[in-house]
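re the bet — no i am not wrong, look at it urself. input seq straight from the record:
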Amino acid sequence: MENNVLDINRILDEARDLGCSDLHFTRGLPPIVRLHGSIRKLSGYEECTEDMIVSVINQITKPKQKASISKGLDTDFSYVSASKFRHRVNVYRQRGYHAIAIRLLRDDIPTLADLNLPAILGEFALAPRGLVLVTGPTGSGKSTTLAAMIDHINIKKNCHIITVEDPIEYMHEHKQCMVNQREIGQDVDSFAGSLRAALREDPDVILVGEMRDFETINAAVTAAETGHLVLSTLHTTGAAETIDRIIDVYPPHSQGQIRSQLANSIVGIISQTLVPTADGKGRCAALEILAATDAVRAMIREGKIFQIPTAIATGKKQGMFTLDQDLARLVRTGKIEDAVARGRCQDLAEYKRFLDMGV
């Protein structure tokens, strides 16, 4: 390191070799990485100055991104390192200084089996039409799960897939499907606009990176209703909360209509969180799965969302289970520690009951 210049490609390679998921640069700290869910300092580096961080920004940005950053705007983009790995980057400001958050992306697309995800996700992916949602907090692996589902379609079906992402994270090859990937800011202006345009582009499957606002949610539900399979994400923590969140973005006089639309179009909801494994060598996904049975559709249509957790807990034959049931399973199989599960469960009494029942 000379003249306050950090070699971003070398640092990214170091972080990737360690198995880190994220890399951060902020003033007053050396480069920070996230490893197995926890943050730590990257050894061998000095505290970052504003000049160092600006030098990193200059190494990874193009003129359009530089212009956005110079206006003080939070700026999202993808970066391909010298080693040809892809990264999702966000440049932002804090206390008047620049900061950078970088997500390290896999260069391969994992299969559903690689991720130890249940077979019902493959069934959701192969549905002829409707809405499939993957939900969870930031950094819970939603994008990776969706990439695996898109790849499953790409292998198993013959159809046209359009993805709309901000930015593109996983690059899909044309296998059995034709896959067109559009990036916000480069290929299209917005999620909602791209969804409306997609309906004129003869898609069978549409992946929307995130349902951020009313316009995008409305366009996604409409697309799902009109014969397309739509996959997307929401930052919610359970199936019932996800349905409530979608309904709540609509004005009161429209909520009856959206309940009916959702009841007709929903295929399944996967809620996930990543938990540290018992061996301390990584993280695994703990899931809640909702499948749209006739009973679940009726609950949505009639506004009885509060009944959905019970339907999930008793829906084992349809491939459903709650987060507490899955945490109990992971503890019983030795995958995670009981203390970790207790910290992540939704209802401690229910979690203990499932652990004792062995279901």
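see?? DSSP finds 14 helices and 13 strands in the chain. told u. also The chain has two domains: 8-104, 120-321. so pay up
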